[in-house]
Amino acid sequence: MGAIDMELYRKLGTRDALGATLAEIGGEYPELVVLAADCLASVRGKAFAAKFPERAINFGIAEADMMMAAAGMATCGKIPVACTFGFLASLRAGEMIRSGICYPKLNVKIAATSSGLAMGDGGTTHHIIEDIAVLRSFANLTILAPCDGVATTKAVRAAIEFPGPVYLRLGRGGEPNVYKDDFDFEIGKAVTLREGSDVTIIAVGAVILRALEAADILAKKGVSARVIDMITLKPIDRDIILKAARETKLIVTAEDHNILGGLGGAVAEVLSEEPSVPLRRVGIKDTFCSIGPTDELMDKYGLSGKAIAKEVLDYT
Amino acid sequence: MAVCNTVPRKKASICELQQNAAEIRRMVDNMFQNAGGGHYGGCLSEVDVLTALYFRILNVDPQNPRWDDRDRFVLSKGHGAGGLYCTLALAGFFAPERLSTLNQLDSAFGMHPDMSKVPGADMSTGSLGLGICAAVGMAIAGKLDKKSWRVYSLLGDGECHEGVVWEAAMAASHHRLDNLTAIVDRNALSMDGPTEEVMSLEPFAAKWEAFGWAVRTINGHNMREIVDALEAVPFVPGRPSLIVARTTKGKGISFIENRWDCHYASLNPEQGERARKELA
Do A103 and B124 count as a contact with CB atoms less than 8 A apart? Predict the structure, then answer.
């Protein structure tokens, strides 16, 4: 694979990075096909379609059929990237992902945009704060959740190379750059964004920046917080979690997902099997969220840097 | 018993197909009696269509089930697995003795087909409506690669209550998949009763036509009609083909025929003996 133009991807959010990456690598992978459910423009697939018109296939507003058609194509040697909004991918077409893709372990990539509260103004129908809980229980599925354009292009490339079903939990786009420099991305390996020796904050996706903000707040109060990006949600990086449990006094998870069954649940499962430290989970407290701009919603539901820092301070 | 042709790549005659279908019905019954029950209704109604496909129509190689340039077959009505297993076994994809493991711990053969375990199964199915969508994807892949192989899929009629079937129907005609043929096993019964009472499907052929498919209705137990229809696809260039195969649920065992409550059945020893005699 050729060198990645990091300068480009630092400027892009997750959604634009998806489209740009597919267009960029389409020539390298003649088997790559991009499937959309009347959302080719929305998922930024038009650049790929312009270069490879036959390989951009629209299914209309029919996610279930699209997901199973992707499965069928994969049996014929294609590498389909089935793109749609997160709530439609994980819930509407969830059974197709489970029975049609994961069970036969077919080489389908699912690119799900506007995950979490990214479509805050869309209301609960368009929020998706249940996807991690649902998808984490599908055997054979790998789940990646890159937080910015740099991480997205790395994750998409890794997904295409990986032989098997991969779900990409992406945002709506426009996310600020987190990964200033190049970094080694490997499926199954979390990334330590900031070293710290007192506590560990494990976050994902849109909450990463807020976790870093929390670490800044904590630093001012003399608390050294390690920040980990759990960019692969499944298979979860047990080693980095257990290392944090050995080296720091408290672990706090933070996610734009229902507090039940998400990142916090996954980390709790790991910690419950080993001698451990206290764990606090920051997430949406088993409620549907109201309507509003994403940032304001995330603040309202306890996902601000301040709230994450408070969670740490309350337990240290 | 006479089995005229176990080499599917040599096209069987109508007479040979009829004899093979009779043998497959016996195999299905044996397998289900051995396992203590099975989807008798739908497995017996589909046998003639499956026989025509595997012994005359499909370009497949039992010695090389994953051959890239084979025709594809997706059993969208996954609960018809019993009929498919026996057809594949008779066609030489695996030893028929393996069917005695049906439903047992770690068997390759369960109520619904697992493509990872059953030689010749091109898709794992069981959840209704999903197989035809996968067949659409295969047909698109074939078109993209300009391949001459074709895709066939068998659906249940009750399966067409599933909305996703009609998503697939739309996609197939929109993408002009004339390399795709769907056959509907129109036995007119689903699990709770006659389809027209449970959730009416008629006008059934007209629905498919309205979705852009070229449709033929045949007697799904008349081998000549089945073969003629399957050999005539695509009925219209540029359009997917749909064959409504009018069938009898439980075909071949008189006390199971047309009984919606025998969708799944377990036979007692007397019934088992009677079934064996009727199928002999």
Answer: yes
Annotation marks residue A95 as catalytic: no
Asked whether residue A221 falls in the same domain as residue A264, the answer is: yes
The residue of chain A with its CA nearest to that of B116 is: A104
B113-139 pLDDT tens trace:
999 999 999 999 999 999 999 999 999
ipTM for the assembly: 0.94
* Beta carbons of A73 and B138 less than 8 Å apart: yes
Assigned token pair, B252: 């071949």
Question: Do A62 and A162 lie in a common domain?
Answer: yes
Token representation of residue B225:
């009609």
Q: Which domain holds residue A224?
A: 191-314
Cβ separation of B130 and A59 shorter than 8 Å?
no
- Number of independent structural domains in chain A: 2
Q: Which helix (DSSP H) or strand (DSSP E) does residue B230 occupy? A: helix B223-231
Question: Is beta strand A166-169 parallel, antiparallel or unpaired with respect to A142-144?
Answer: parallel
Give tens-digit pLDDT for B84-115: 999 999 999 999 999 999 999 999 999 999 99
Burial class (CB in 10 A: 0-12, 13-18, 19+), B63: exposed
> Which among A75, A106, A110 is the top mutation candidate for probing chain B, defined by the most B β-carbons within 10 Å of its own β-carbon?
A75
